[in-house]
Amino acid sequence: VQLQASGGGLVQAGGSLRLSCAASGSTFSTNGMGWFRQAPGKEREFVADTSRDGITTYYADSVKGRFTISSNNAKNTVYLQMNRLRPEDTAVYYCAARTSFVRGGARSYTYWGQGTLVTVSS
Q1: Model pLDDT for residues 22-76, shown as the tens digit of each residue
Q2: For site-directed labelling of 68, which of 14, 15, 29, 56 has its Cα 20 to 30 A away?
Q3: DSSP notation for 44-109
Q4: Cβ(60)–Cβ(48) under 8 Å?
């Protein structure tokens, strides 16, 4: 499975961005997709996850109510709509796919995209 993330950029605080993650290859083997982020000097952290059917979603407390994860299975694409962005949301955002039915930490995700940079100015 190959993952291609896009949509990052520079935005002012309070603004919005939508990230996309296009999957190709053996996507039938995946059972969920997630977004992680890594800020400079910090560890990678979980942001959001969706089950393959899009019914079950999870969010980190820091983004709950501001970010929305969604998927378009016909296009093999997962999105992360980010609203009311804050400077502390600045990070490289990675999409990842898991074959596990159970969402866990980063180790439960088998496939990773290359990352897209989101910069939120104050």
Answers
A1: 999 988 889 999 999 999 999 999 999 999 888 999 999 999 999 999 999 889 9
A2: 29
A3: -EEEEEEETTS--EEE-TTTTTTEEEEEEGGGTEEEEEE-S--GGG-EEEEEEEESSSS--SGGG-
A4: yes
Cα 27 to Cα 37: distance, rounded to the nearest angstrom: 22
Structure tokens, 20:
């996309």
* Number of C-beta neighbours around residue 104 at 10 A: 11
Q: Kindly give, in sequence order, each residue whose CB lies less than 8 Å from that of residue 14, ignoring residues fewer than 6 positions away.
A: 84, 85
Structure tokens at 37: 């982020």
Count of other CB atoms within 10 angstroms of residue 55: 7
Separation CA 20–CA 80 (nearest Å): 7
- Residue 49, C-beta contacts closer than 8 angstroms, at least 6 positions apart: 32, 33, 34, 35, 57, 58, 69, 103
CA separation for the pair 32, 107 (Å, rounded): 13
Q: Which H helix or E strand runs over 43?
A: none
Give the pLDDT of residue 121. 97
